[in-house]
Amino acid sequence: MEWQQLHYFRTLANMQHMTRAAEQLAISQPALSRSIAKLEEELGVPLFDRYGRGIFLNHFGESFLKRVTAMQQEYDKALVELQELNNPAYGEISLGFLHTLGTNIVPDIIQDFRITHPDVRFHLSQNYSHNQLKLLQSGELDICLLAAIETEPPVMWQELWRDELFVVVPRKHRFAKRKSVTLEELEGESFIHLKKGYPLRKTVDKFFKQNHLQLQPAFEADEVATITGFIAAGLGISLLPNDENYNPERIVKIPVKGTVCERIIGLAWMDHQTVLPAVAAFRTHVISLFHK
């Protein structure tokens, strides 16, 4: 059974006149007759009753016409959706990003992109870097903004910018009124860390190792929000990226002196996947924003 056969059937069913239907379809009457006969043979039932030169849709044909009409409507919808997806002015983008980027950076990026692509739809997913990577590899995300992480092809990576890390302490901590703190001064402090495996954990560990310093993790958490909650309760300090959600009444952030403490943020995508035009346009847009 071919789509053309269904199109021929639907036309004849609506017109119920072999000659006019053939003219409408721009084919010969015998060709239309053969197509309908072949369709009926494949279905195992007659779709039309024939009386002399007349042809009329029967009960089988009426039932089949309803299904074919529904199929045609779904096909037309699918065609429109595919055309939109293939148009960079439309389409959908599944974007993943770190929680700390959701306050300003991601909204600003999307707002800027929508100046030229107002009809593109976004599906947003806030998650940690390693979770984003899994979603990217499974195809649930098209593109993601995450911290520097070890990747291998077909995962592609492009650095975008660097975030300064701050010493974050409770409001009543002895460092709270300082303008800056060195990493050496953090040695011996009760340190609240992310669990091993997180990119930020690896970054912070690297800074201390490079400076031959030892950390004393008092607690290990899965989320930055948990760490800041423990800090606010006076249970320790940490080295974290800036976040406008920090409560200034309970937490103080202090620049690091003497060592450049930064985390790298970049864009990741899958190289082997068929890239929708809207996704490709957004990727180019984001990279150009940070590499002018």
TrEMBL record:
Q: Which keywords appear in this protein's UniProt record, sorted alphabetically?
A: DNA-binding, Transcription, Transcription regulation
The keyword Transcription appears for this protein: yes
Keyword set includes Transcription regulation? yes
Q: Name one GO molecular function term.
A: DNA binding
GO CC term (a single one) = cytosol
Question: What domain of life does the UniProt record list for this protein's source?
Answer: Bacteria
Which SUPFAM superfamilies does the annotation name?
Answer: Periplasmic binding protein-like II, Winged helix' DNA-binding domain
Q: Name one Pfam family in it.
A: LysR_substrate
Q: Which residues form the HTH lysR-type domain?
A: 1-58
List the PANTHER family hit by this protein, alphabetically.
HTH-TYPE TRANSCRIPTIONAL REGULATOR BSDA (PTHR30419:SF28), HTH-TYPE TRANSCRIPTIONAL REGULATOR YBHD (PTHR30419)
* Family, similarity comment: Belongs to the LysR transcriptional regulatory family.
Protein known as: HTH-type transcriptional regulator YybE
The protein's organism comes out as Lysinibacillus alkalisoli
